[in-house]
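Practice problem: predict the structure.
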Amino acid sequence: MTRVAEVMTRGVRSMPPHATLVEAAKAMDELNVGAIPVCEGDRLIGMVTDRDIVVRAVAQGRSISETPLADVMSANVRSCFEDQSVDEVLSLMRDAQIRRVPVVDRARQLVGVLSLGDVAAKDDEAQAGLALEAISEPAEPDRSVSSEPTTKTSPSRGEDMGARDVTGAPLRD
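Answer:
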């Protein structure tokens, strides 16, 4: 059974919650990635994606040079441990419809990211393909027309601002 530590990407760049959206977008461009972990020190507190920047900031008319990542990041992040099996984490990814999962050690420090690409390239291409198929089920778009600007907040932005393990339980010290 393959463990996450065997196939994950290590040395992942993270950013602090006070960094701006412009800084995150520049880092994503430089690294050719679509998501960056948000950490206080080495402790994972969220993730910000290129889509978060567009939907939660640009579309809402927020200043990308002044808005901190903490205002748009997904805080209830599913994560996994480096000693878990890849099969278990792929199941989480399918269920949560996510393509990448931050990897933390037992001290809750960010140690890497596991993506479907990592699994396809380094472990089991067929399993990664099945997970991608399940993750990629299209959602029904909201095509309602409204004269009022949309001000919906993401369901992932709630009172509980902590990271989550693969079972969905909050990570605790």
